Amino acid sequence: MPKNDIGFGIIGGTGVYNLNLQDTKKIKVNTPYGKTSDVIIIGQFRNRKIAFIPRHGNKHTIPPHLVNFKANIWAYKKLGIKRIVGISSVGSLRKKIKPGQFALPSQFLDFTKSRDGSFSKIGDVIHISVANPFCPELQKIAFKVSIDCKIKLHKNCVYTCIEGPRFSTYAESNFFRRVGADVIGMTLVPECQLAREVQICYLSIAIVTDYDSWLDESVTAKNVSSKLTDSAQMINKIITKLIDLTPTSRTACNCEKDLLSAKL
Questions:
Q1: What is the pTM of this model?
Q2: In this structure, what DSSP letter does residue 123 have?
Q3: Residue of 210, 230, 244, 258 marked active site
Q4: Considering 5, 38, 182, 212, which one is annotated as catalytic?
Q5: How many domains are contained in the chain?
Q6: Which CATH number characterizes residue 121's domain?
Q7: Residue 210: active-site member
């Protein structure tokens, strides 16, 4: 498949199964890693061509520990996409980060157990740096968007990624708080590090849906779903403004050069 002028690849998390794209078409991209989570939808969003894929499938049939992250990222790379925005839902581990607000992760803690998190293979070993895992240019623009749109977006958050699909115990939730995590979710890893390996800029925008298990009540899927419905309109607002403000060329980050120092 030839590369094209798709400006952004959006990966929708729980509750985000579509964007308001115009002139859409659905395509399947064959990958060496199996099937993508769903067909990829390509369409016009504002003045840009955008690709969209629901991380858990269009009907939320794929649990977080079984998402084919490698196929999704490889397909976007094959399409020539240079920037990815990953949308996800998270629980808050800080009282000031309230359900209904948004978080902008700048670091992560990986507590997953069974995921294939690298395109490295025998004969082609990649040692990427993820000291700063996310595109600094996209982070700066996203925070400006939140101010312009008067949306509460907590920046510089530490995201703990757990295996799922279960939620945390009370003890686990408090442990993650003690080690410095601000939010907790199930899908950031290995998605963001795979994007780094193929030199795609990656931004995570997290919808805060609950207080995990550390506060007064345990989190439930029903509670998460209700908050996601409330936040859907704001996500579209953020994405729209983000796309408008992001330049077509990548000159304010080094994401496209990460492999230069990743091989011995």
A1: 0.94
A2: T
A3: 210
A4: 212
A5: 1
A6: 3.40.50.1580
A7: yes
